[in-house]
TrEMBL record:
It holds the Pfam family SCP2_2. This is GNAT family N-acetyltransferase. Homohexamer; trimer of dimers. The active site is at Y120 (proton donor), F405 (proton acceptor). InterPro entries: Acetyltransf_17 (IPR041380), Acetyltransferase_Eis (IPR051554), Acyl_CoA_acyltransferase (IPR016181), Eis_dom (IPR025559), GNAT_dom (IPR000182), NAcTrfase_Eis (IPR022902), SCP2_sterol-bd_dom_sf (IPR036527). The lineage of its organism: Bacteria, Bacillati, Candidatus Dormiibacterota, Candidatus Dormibacteria, Candidatus Aeolococcales. It comes from the Bacteria. Keywords: Acyltransferase, Transferase. Acetyl-CoA binds at V79, G80, V81, R87, R88, G89, A90, L91, R92, S115, E116. Belongs to the acetyltransferase Eis family. The keyword Acyltransferase applies. PROSITE patterns: GNAT. GO terms for biological process: aminoglycoside antibiotic catabolic process. Transmembrane segments: none annotated.
Length: 405
């Protein structure tokens, strides 16, 4: 059988790429096509005997690590393989190209959201953060505190929203696991949400300002008005809620929870450390189901381990095994705490041994070394090292990817 060839596309071919990838998913080209290909940085097609059989693309998404520093991340997206050519290695060839491209361009980490959580571990990706789907009936959404907003809310026309979203997102430095979106990327979201989808209204944007008039949060949502026997039964589909402080956070939640004609609020990307969980009077009424979210593939261990901060001051030697990338494999000493960290390759004896995917899982502090050890994914070489690694790498609040790409 012929070999699969990976073809890197020039930006002028990105429109062709987007149409081809849509074909692989069996979907009609959608709204926002133009914005989609403007948001892509790199795109590739897998070719077999002259036929395009696979597609994958990369978007630049700076990623926030524990402690607030940001590192460049290749966000892998638009992955698809023709239904007629599956299980012939097209995905493997594209994942290999993505990894080598990141390594050659000094990008320390790749990230993606998986359509199925079973696919990517074999390529060295570990589940690094989790997210919730949340639903609450507004009749049971009272807060157990009385909250009076010292600031104010205002509606923002969609065509004015991009600079506002980007400004607030860039100031949210403590959002571990969050990404920064380009203006083009934000416009993809607008284009997709501008058109009414059945009975769901286009996206509404509400911004919050503090008492001094400084913007400190926004909520994006779509309203679905419904009626049953003459009674209102509306739903607010909350797409995103980003706030820089608790007042803004509560004011924005209160806005959606107290809206007239709305009986239910649903959020597909709910932060698992959202303070709302502690503040609703009847927390069981806030139904949250969790799933894996951001999968990370470490490429430059030294860059990543020295960029993040650690909850406990300590020093560890970590041996990383990596069948897919010999450049990643090796032993690393990391020494750090809340104020900074140093990481370097070492010949010293390992305290813990793990594979690249396990390190990806530990990077944002959402999955502990102890949990991985219990599953025999992390091995302890020095007594007590796993407990120390768990304390060192843990982080609060929990990571939260603000947008799935
Ligand atoms: C998922 C998809 C991209 C896989 O592409 P593919 O070219 O068939 O994959 P490959 O032949 O390169 O397989 C590589 C490995 O992944 C495994 N794999 C592929 N698809 C898988 C799936 N859906 N679930 C679990 N494992 C999967 C293969 O068994 C193979 O494993 P191995 O090499 O360890 O034995 C393709 O089936 C597809 O386009 N599906 C629909 C769209 C989609 O889900 N895209 C992913 C978006 S994140």
């Amino acid at each position: 059988m012929s070999a699969i060839e990976i073809v890197d596309l020039a930006p002028s071919d990105f429109e062709h790429f987007v149409l081809t990838a849509h074909g692989f998913w069996g979907e009609a080209p959608e709204i926002g096509m133009e914005q989609v290909h403007h948001a892509l940085r790199r795109a590739m097609l897998a070719r077999l005997d002259g036929e395009d059989i696979g597609a994958a693309a990369v978007i630049d998404f700076p990623l926030t690590l524990p402690g607030g520093s940001r590192v460049a991340m290749d966000g892998v997206t638009w992955v698809g393989v023709a239904a007629t050519a599956r299980r012939r290695g097209a995905l493997r060839a594209m994942m290999d190209r993505c990894l080598r491209s990141a390594r050659d361009r000094d990008i320390p980490v790749l990230g993606l959201g998986a359509s199925e959580s079973s696919i990517y571990r074999r390529f060295g990706y570990g589940v690094a953060s989790h997210i919730g789907s949340a639903a609450i009936d507004t009749a049971h959404a009272a807060l157990r505190i009385s909250f009076h907003d010292p600031g104010r809310l205002r509606f923002v026309p969609l065509h004015d929203a991009v600079p506002l979203w980007r400004d607030i997102e860039s100031r949210q430095v403590d959002r571990t696991g969050g990404i920064l979106r380009s203006a083009d990327h934000w416009r993809v979201g607008i284009a997709r949400n501008e058109t009414p989808d059945g009975k769901i209204a286009p996206m509404t944007v509400v911004a919050h300002e503090d008492a001094a008039g400084v913007l400190d949060g926004f909520a994006n949502y779509r309203v679905e008005l419904r009626w049953a026997d003459g009674l209102s039964d509306g739903i607010v589909h909350l797409t995103e809620l980003t706030a820089l402080n608790l007042d803004a956070h509560l004011a924005l939640w209160q806005h959606v929870l107290e809206m007239d004609l709305i009986e239910h609020v649903e959020m597909w990307r709910f932060w698992l450390d959202d303070p709302l969980q502690q503040l609703v009077a009847d927390p069981r009424r806030l139904r949250v189901s969790t799933r894996d979210d951001l999968h990370l593939r470490v490429v430059d261990v030294v860059a990543l381990l020295s960029a993040r901060r650690y909850s406990r001051e300590d020093s560890l030697v970590i041996e990383v095994r990596d069948d897919a990338c010999a450049d990643v494999a090796g032993r690393y000493r990391v020494e750090g705490g809340l104020d900074g960290a140093i990481a370097a390759r070492t010949n010293a004896t390992a305290d813990v041994v793990l594979d690249a995917a396990a390190l990806g899982s530990m990077l944002l502090g959402d999955v502990s070394a102890a949990a991985l050890q219990r599953a025999d994914i992390v091995q302890e070489e020095r007594e007590g090292a796993v407990r120390r690694a768990s304390a060192m790498f843990s982080w609060s609040p929990r990571p939260w990817l603000n947008h799935m790409f």
